[in-house]
Design brief:
By secondary structure, the chain is α/β, with parallel strands linked by helices. It contains 15 helices and 6 strands.
Length: about 350
Amino acid sequence: MKLWMKFFMILVFAFSVTGIAGCSGSSGDGESKETQRQESLGVESDKQEADHQTGESDGTEKDTETTPNDAKSEGVKTGFFWRVDHAGNTVYLLGSIHVGTDDFYPMDDQIEGAFEESSYLAVEADIVNVNPLEVQSLIQERGMYSDGSTIEDHLSPELFQKLEETLKEYGINVDMLQPFEPWYIVMLLESLQIMKQGYDEQLGVDYYFLSKADGKEIIELEGIEYQINMFDSFSEDVQTKLLELNLNYEGDLEKEMEGLMKVWKSGDEEKLVELTLDDGDGSEEYQIYMDALLDERNIGMVEKIEKFLKSKEQETYFVIVGAAHYVGEQGIIELLEEKGYEVKKQY
């Protein structure tokens, strides 16, 4: 599985910069705009860099002629969209990618309409209506060494040097991260790397619908604390393996993300299953990580979705979780069908 498949699976990475902000003299006022985070960490997306080079962001006049790429004929849709009806209840299941760009929205009318008719919005975790200071405190409690040791004490000299060199590329001194455990550092690196490509977690599908959910009851299928605890529960060997894979990545992130976006928009289930079944480096540590990230969580999500379907309220629910959770033999769709529900794909 490609490292970047995590953006089909887990939401908590959206707060990865929050932890380091608390240890870097941040005011902690809860501001979370992407440009503010990028400026504070010295991260500029490749698109922003190109704009600076062409003068588009320095106040010079910009050609306003509309190009085919600028024209927006219809909203974005994804094939990872299903409907289940039972006992007078309707549950829409939307597969999310947890990062995006502003041209994702609004989404296709069928998706937007299903959302509007729903009384409930169910997500992995409510990443909008949350106190950033509480998340910061939680990350520091779970993501920092409690015995006074540092990340340098837990890594080989070679891996630590690689970490130091990688952080320098983002203008970050490794000393800022000395108190943090590997799982947190991996999330921070992934967030920085994806920001560099011009993607924004605040433009992810979950964030978009949460930000316009006024009047709807929001239900967390897991919650931020659950996801943080999951990562913190991994052994040091598993966490170190994830860091090693990230630091030794030699692929083309831009092309991989373009490929993932194509899979998401087309709803190519076979391709997504293929990506999730990729065994990484073949290690036992990686398999432990994947089992926890997907299969084990899918079971808990299905239990809650089934409660929606069996509700006596006869209501409509709009469920959003990472697209990878729906597919495969242990995916949400298969698990629901095994329980006797008819799951209808909408595109």
